[in-house]
Amino acid sequence: LEQEEEGVSLQDVIEEDAELEATASAVLGGSDDKACTYPLGYVKRQALFACATCDTGDQPAGLCLACSLECHNSHELYELYTKRGFRCDCGNLKFADFKCKLVPGKDPTNDENKYGQNFKGLYCSCHRPYPDEEDDVDDDMIQCVVCEDWFHGRHLGATKVPPGMEYSEMVCFDCTKRLDEHIDGATHEKNGEKAPHVNGASFWPSDWRMILCRCGSCVTIYKELDVEFLLEESDTVKAYEEKGRREQSTGLEGVEGMSRVHQIEMIHGFNNMKEGLTEFLKSFADQGKVVTADDIRQFFQTLNQKRRRLD
């Protein structure tokens, strides 16, 4: 007998959508959705995208939030979450004749930008897309705080997250090994000890950056390794998301601060979502089918696509 799919309650639906909306607000709330960030230079941290529709050859390129909506709104995009120290590439030399609608006169290249395989839609040490239709393993993706690539939990080397440990940031195997050889290795050599062998990623609690050594020798090493950002608590994704939450009004508080016209538009949009969800759930009830978590995710994915087109 086939195993019956696990059903979900309406409360599950509400909580799932609320969690997705909260995460989106936190990530995007710290970014401007109307103005290209190019004039701001290399932004400390911002939400970024890469365009799969625009052909930039073997030269990866990144887009700010505003350009993803205004210049590439009908294109296939890779959502890169956030990246540090990046300047928007939209419409520069990498895009040939394509010009940015928001800031058309950009320099040919942004030489200080750093790129990786994420800009081509590939992730992890397995170099696979995400989501991956050929991967049937349910596994979390975790971002390395140093190289900012994303990794499957099962591909982080011999080191695993200790059971029950609440970690704040992860440093992947390659970055842990590289930093350990220079930073920890120098410290152990100074103390007459042998540096430990690293065979996996490392996981760090919320205050780990605050206790990093800030002596002159160590700061010099951070500069040589180009990881001075580790000394800044404001560099963390957590700090960025908290900033986004503060700037992004939600719920009734946001509605009360709107003009009457915007209030009506907001309430109208909510009612449309509620009616659509009711019809969606009714179709399952009429057919005697169980609503699964995947069904709900598909509903909200379709809804978000409609929202983007309307926006």
Automatic annotation (TrEMBL):
PANTHER family: E3 UBIQUITIN-PROTEIN LIGASE UBR7, E3 UBIQUITIN-PROTEIN LIGASE UBR7-RELATED. A zinc finger (UBR-type) spans 34-105. SUPFAM superfamilies: FYVE/PHD zinc finger. Residues 34-105 form the UBR-type domain. GO terms for molecular function: ubiquitin protein ligase activity; zinc ion binding. This is UBR-type domain-containing protein. One of its GO terms (cellular component) is cytoplasm. Keywords: Metal-binding, Zinc, Zinc-finger.
